[in-house]
Structure formats: C-alpha cells, structure tokens
C-alpha cells in the first residue's frame, strides 16, 4: 500500500497544513480495500495532507503499561512506557502533548468516545502550530474508527498488544468483553481486568437501552479454562435475559437456572445494576458479591447494601426471591464495584490490600481530578504492584459515574432494600 515518491500528498488529498478533511475522507474510502496489516502504511500516507512527514500509531498493550508501535515496512520505533513519557501523558491525560526539547513531534490520544486505544505520533516542522494540532486531533478520531472497523479482519493488532502469550482461558473472556470505557453526556462507565493473559473467572458486561444502563459484574468460582467457560455461560445468559426484556429478579433467576443446569457443582457471585440516567434511580441485586462503594463529593461515603441473593447457581438452596436494593443517586455520584481479587490481594508479609486501602486510593485519584479510565488503570496497576506483579486471583473493577446536565428533583440520601 506504499505510494511512489512525490504522490503521497495527492493520494491523501493534498489538503495542506491544518486541513484534515481530505485526509479523513481519503482514509475512510481507502481503508476498506486493505487489511489490518495495511493500516500503518495507510495512516502514514495521510500525513502530508495535514503537513506531517510521519504519522505512527501506538496502541496500549493489554496491561495498559506500554505503548506499542504498529509499524509498516522500513519503520522503526521503540515500545514506550506509559509512565514518565510524553506519549504516555497524552494517553493518561487525554490531551495532545508537545515538548519544547522535541519541537517537531506531537502526541495525540487515540480515542473512540472515551475509550483509550493509544496515541498517534505526528512528526512535522509545524508541530507547535495550533492548526496542526487541531488537524492531527481530527485525524486521530478517524484513525481510531478505522482501527476498530478493520481490526477484526486480522490478528496484527491483537498480536502487537500482547507482550506475553495469552492463555485460552483469557482468550475466551477477552473475546466476550465489551469496550472497557463508554460515555455519554450523562454517564461514564469504565472497567479494568487483570491479569490480562491468564484470567479465568471474572467477567462483566453493560448495555444502554433508552434511559436504562444495565451493568453486570460476575466472579465465577475456580480458575483456568473451567472458570472462563462458566464465565462465558454467565455473561451470555445475562445478555439473553436482558435482551428478552426480563427484569432484574428474573434475570438473576435465569442465570441461576443456567448455571445450575450446565455446571451443577459451580456458582458465580454477581452484582446486577440498572440505572435510569434521567432520574438517577438505581436498582441492584447483590448475589453473594462484595458490596459496591458509593462515592460522593470526591470521597467514598458508604458501601451499598449487600442484602440480596445467594450466588448464582445456588438459588435452589433458598425459597426466597432475590432482593432488590433501590434508591436514587445524586448528580456526580460514582459507584465503584469490584471483585474480591482487588481487596484480597496480599503482599509478601500477608497483609491484604483491603477495602480501606481501596477507598484511600480512589479518594486520592478523585481529588486529583483524574479521568475515570486513568483512575481505573492506576488502581489495577497499584493492586498488581502491591502483590509484586503476581496476582493470585483476577482483579476486576467497574466505575460508574452519573453526571446529568440538569439535576432531577427529589433525590434520596441512600439505598433502601425492597422486596420485588
């Protein structure tokens, strides 16, 4: 897909400095004619249209610790750590970065909405020109969209993001997960899952249908392929119940039925949420899971009620229906849900990471004003470091933020358990 010398600008439209429109249109028209392996060269050819001599795609690895270059023939770049590099700052802060000591280079975040994919390195003698930064930012949106649409047709992107061999159990789970971050004007949901290459039992899902955001977080028993197989069944049963229009109680009962039928000696803990993004009404079932935290005004103020149901798959041991906890959020409230791999992580002397340390970490992150995806990335990196990079269990967490532009009336201060 390389272009002959002297024709690069014409290939991409030749728009000139600050004009990304032609490059964006050319990219979207040309990309469907190539495979994922052609993306690097294709994006590079779009560079002259905005006044850039080089454009290089860097994608975050699965652990979100490194930025890995997607390179075409004849190109070379080092893998860059996210911590303590300008490229990493563009990724973490979601803002273009330009250093005086490197005047011909800018770093622009690659985003799909709020989902962070990586960064673009843009090399140009006009790197400090606001027009070039604006054009590069616009082009980066298009590059991210093309990456998403072309990635499923080959393995190059998956291979480059993996710094270690991925086990089959992890392959199953990652293949089922939704994007780690999703945002609208009034909602942000972001999640993290570790370890990346050998996960088993943890899985999550979410969906926005009209005004209702549905969220499910599951921790299946066991490890390895058996746990990931159960996780696959649990999340598929959850999606099926949701898409059939079942309410929370019947959704929990349906998943419980399928787990018991297919894996009679196993179970899964779960948190099932429904949030009305117009009113802030939150409904939740806790099926044997650690209680989620309610965060307000930059601090964790309480653990949400944990009175609920038996773990899914064990419902036949009780004749009670799952209990629904219900109440109203305040504008700006956040819900932090997690699996026990977060709080049960132990350092060398045996001390647990614990809920107090979790609350302290989140409080500090919120007070620093970090974006939600960066808060979650730093949280899981902190948990991994606490256990000397050797987690004994999956560590998964979801942060949900409700931020309506206009606050509805009549908010309650807490959540009250009600019978369905």
UniProtKB/TrEMBL annotation:
PANTHER family: STAGE II SPORULATION PROTEIN E (PTHR43156:SF2), STAGE II SPORULATION PROTEIN E-RELATED (PTHR43156). The keyword Magnesium does not apply. SUPFAM superfamilies: PP2C-like. GO terms for molecular function: protein serine/threonine phosphatase activity. Keywords: Hydrolase. Residues 184-402 form the PPM-type phosphatase domain. The keyword Acetylation does not apply. This is PP2C family protein-serine/threonine phosphatase. It comes from Plantactinospora siamensis. It holds the Pfam family SpoIIE. InterPro entries: Bact_Sigma-Reg, PPM-type-like_dom_sf, PPM-type_phosphatase-like_dom. Its EC number is 3.1.3.16.
